[in-house]
Design a protein that fits this description.
Shape: elongated
Radius of gyration: 34 Å
CATH class of one domain: Mainly Beta
Helix content: 10-25%
Structural class: alpha+beta
Order of helices and strands: EEEEEEEEEEEH
CATH architecture of one domain: Sandwich
CATH topology of one domain: Immunoglobulin-like
CATH superfamily of one domain: Immunoglobulins
Number of strands: 11
Strand content: over 45%
Largest sheet: 6 strands, mixed
């Protein structure tokens, strides 16, 4: 594109603006170079710019939760758009073998362009057993939807079978140390009393 000639005074700033048709260009980072002619001299200025697309991605969702009660499920929504997206929200649903077990909606967020927005949904896991489940996240934005599915492990709040022997071992050691301490104390008192008797 070619801009019209303008007169610029010393120390004066002058902005040249023109709309650029991005039709047919894939989203990504591009290089723009401006060739400037001033007072018979040629100048060249380059900069990078980014072309976006109206698209949202789900990133870094929680990989595990503890069953029982209301649990917080966290994730990020990344915007690939070069404009701010208003009133973005998501619905998070827990499935097992195709059956829906729990569902929750996030709050509404205004997601800045190119930004990663943290979101949270609070799932009711009161009547859910430990095991592997499917988590579905649907993000709603600008009359569009983004779907993400992943596996999630729901864990028991009780100690595992491997942890319990360790806990029992600690208890046994504490009991043994306590008994030995008492025995040493009794032997010390007995020797002290025998010494007094001989005196």
């Amino acid at each position: 594109m070619v801009f019209p000639s303008v007169s610029v005074k010393t120390a004066q700033d002058y902005d040249l603006k023109e709309k650029f048709d991005t039709s047919g260009l894939a989203p990504g980072i591009y290089n723009a170079t401006a060739y400037i002619v001033a007072d018979g001299e040629n100048y060249q200025v380059s900069t990078l710019f980014r072309i976006g697309t109206l698209d949202m991605e789900v990133l870094n969702s929680s990989k595990s939760l503890v069953v029982g009660g209301i649990r917080k499920f966290d994730f990020f929504v990344k915007s690939n758009w070069n404009l701010d997206a208003k009133d973005v929200y998501a619905i998070v649903t827990l499935f097992k073998d195709g059956s829906q077990l729990s569902s929750a909606k996030t709050a509404n967020y205004d997601v800045p362009r190119w930004a990663k927005q943290p979101m949270s949904a609070f799932l009711d896991l009161s009547d859910v057993e430990p095991g592997e489940y499917e988590i579905q996240i649907i993000v709603y934005y600008e009359d569009k939807q983004a779907l993400n599915k992943a596996k999630i492990l729901l864990e028991s709040s009780e100690p595992s079978a491997e942890e319990k022997p360790q806990s029992n071992l600690v208890i046994i050691l504490v009991v043994v140390v306590t008994i030995l301490t008492l025995l040493n104390l009794l032997l010390f008192m007995r020797k002290k009393n025998e010494k007094k008797g001989t005196d």
